[in-house]
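To make this tangible, we now present a fold written out as tokens:
***
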Amino acid sequence: MTDNTEGVSHRVAEDSRDPAELAKFEAMATEWWDPKGKFKPLHKFNPVRLDYIRTQICRHFDRPEHVDHPLKGLNLLDIGCGGGLLSEPMARLGAEVTGVDAVETNIQTARLHAQREGLTIHYRTGSTDSLLSENLKYDVILNMEVVEHVAHVPSFIADCAQLLAPGGIMFLATLNRTLKAFGLAIIGAEYVLGWLPRGTHNWNKFVTPGELEQALHMAGLAMTQSTGVSFNPLSDQWRLSGDLDVNYMATAGHANS
């Protein structure tokens, strides 16, 4: 492995938050928990990504998967947590969850919903910079549907690498920058089917698996697993697949661990 000091050092000068992307989600913040609202695609997507996350965490930490609280004792960070669609099930599985989001309205929504559900989740408004200033470390980091919205992917990944505890695992989910993704994720989902508000995604900000792997490498991390996620219109469900052309998920850990 090459020396990653140069790649990591640029993090200090970069702010990964993109004001235009934040404004999009500010406008939709009150609808996070409406399964028929603007976040309907995430509600449909949630079961497959939850199964993937739980399975990979249990394998990584050698824990039994089918028990009540398989993640008990693990410190988990949900970056770009939104209204808490992933933070809440992670807390129910036993993890000590911190959810961070740059949009204050998202955090307010998440806090209120967690309180109603009787869940203890530490929600905070901010970014990776604010966490780094406190020298915090996490066993598990969720980085789901985030990298395609940040201003500078390598700097953002470098931040995440510094937040990941030794021996920890990070999850990433994003969209591949292919013509197929443009047709399905933007033209199809936003303009034809109306699953998402028009302008939710910018194809130019989609991240190829190779670009993601390079950013991880520069930050001293290694991609350990990846999978495509495809939608089946007949069953109206998402499933894991070998097709990484549109949606895909990956896991990563420190390269020297």
